[in-house]
């Protein structure tokens, strides 16, 4: 699978502290290799093919699955990373 970041997610990721950004990159690699990797703790959100996953205890990201493509939509602290704020 190919993992890409939406322009919004790239902008949000650029504002993350370096240790969290490093964790995000690691989680994106896990997502590419196995979308059901246990450390992602991913779950389906309301809506078609939209999921949330953990970066760490405080940070999340959402992603969309379209065929063989995974698009990371939002990144950040819990509610912000889930696109709620």
Task: Explain what you see.
The chain is of the alpha+beta class and 85 residues long. The protein has a single domain (2-79), classed as YaeB-like fold (2-Layer Sandwich), CATH 3.30.2310.20. It is built from three helices and five strands. It has a five-stranded mixed β-sheet with strand order 1-5-4-3-2. The chain is globular, with a radius of gyration of 11 Å. The termini are far apart.
Q: What's the average pLDDT?
A: 91
Determine the number of helices (DSSP H or I, runs of at least 4 residues). 3
Main sheet overview: 5 strands, mixed
Radius of gyration: 11 Å
What is this entry, summarized?
33% of the residues lie in helices and 33% in strands. The chain is of the alpha+beta class. The protein has a single domain, classed as YaeB-like fold.
Set down the secondary structure blueprint.
Elements: E1 2-5, H1 7-14, H2 18-33, E2 43-44, E3 50-54, E4 59-66, E5 69-77, H3 78-81
Parallel strand pairs: 1-5
Antiparallel strand pairs: 2-3, 3-4, 4-5
Protein name: Addiction module toxin RelE
Organism: Candidatus Gottesmanbacteria bacterium RIFCSPHIGHO2_01_FULL_47_48
InterPro entries: RelE/ParE_toxin, RelE/ParE_toxin_dom_sf
């Amino acid at each position: 699978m190919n993992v890409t970041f939406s322009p919004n997610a790239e902008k949000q990721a650029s504002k993350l502290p370096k240790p969290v950004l490093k964790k995000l990159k690691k989680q994106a690699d896990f997502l590419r290799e196995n979308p059901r990797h246990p450390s992602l703790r991913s779950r389906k959100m309301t809506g078609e093919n939209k999921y949330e996953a953990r970066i760490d205890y405080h940070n999340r990201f959402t992603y969309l699955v379209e065929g063989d493509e995974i698009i990371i939509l939002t990144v950040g602290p819990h509610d912000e990373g889930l696109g709620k704020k």
